[in-house]
Specification:
Two copies of one chain form a homodimer. By secondary structure, the first copy, chain A, is α+β, with helices and mostly antiparallel strands. Chain A contains two helices and six strands.
């Protein structure tokens, strides 16, 4: 499969959609459809899980009343099997806490007439507590 | 190709080797052998380049007398085509400047009897100047 010429547009649109769904409690559950039931891998602050159900369980376990992802930069690269590599740098605002830098990395894989998240890695930018 | 069961060990060893070569001016040029001559893609602070020669040109253009990458966290995931996804969070010390947070993402691809870097994305964690 060739490089997808629209990688930048697809990657940026995906990122916006992902955080819009995440930040609204009424739509957060729809994220499940973006992951593959069995394959998708997530690393969340060093903890690994696989499959849409386990990933959604992790997301649902996060303790905040409200959350907002503010995107600073999105880097996209086309992959040689038709996938798209996305790197996000941003700030996370939860409840009334001060904004916290985060980085998140996605690998999107073509599936059906759309893309799903095959890899998802999330890290807060914290140097004194990260393992 | 199946998931590589040694993804964690390979990813962490690669990361250590990469920054050891980078941080020593006498060995920095050896990084070129880790990239594919034509294919490898790099995004450096939003600027994209392709191929080992152009990537090394970019690295050589960075202006510092001495540099040290201090690794805070390395997240590795096995990819479904035998590759390895690596996410690095760390601190960069250049010359006598204060440490600066950075994130770097690599996709390693099996090639010959080793791995090469197919994708490389680097970003300083700066929210006011990133594009």
């Amino acid at each position: 499969m060739a490089l997808n010429p629209n990688y930048e547009q697809i990657g940026k649109a995906f990122t916006q959609q992902y955080y819009a769904l995440f930040d609204n409690p009424a739509t957060r559950g729809q994220l499940q459809a973006l992951y593959n039931a069995e394959q998708s891998l997530m690393s969340f602050e060093g903890q690994q899980m696989q499959g849409a159900a386990k990933i959604m369980e992790k997301i649902a376990s996060l303790t905040f009343q409200k959350i907002a992802h503010l995107i600073t930069a999105v880097d996209c690269q086309p992959m040689f099997d038709g996938g798209i590599l996305i790197n996000v740098l941003g700030q996370l605002k939860t409840d009334d806490d001060p904004p916290q830098s985060f980085m998140q990395n996605f690998v999107l894989r073509p599936g059906g007439d759309s893309f799903y998240i095959q890899h998802d890695v999330f890290r807060l930018v914290l140097h004194n507590v990260a393992a």
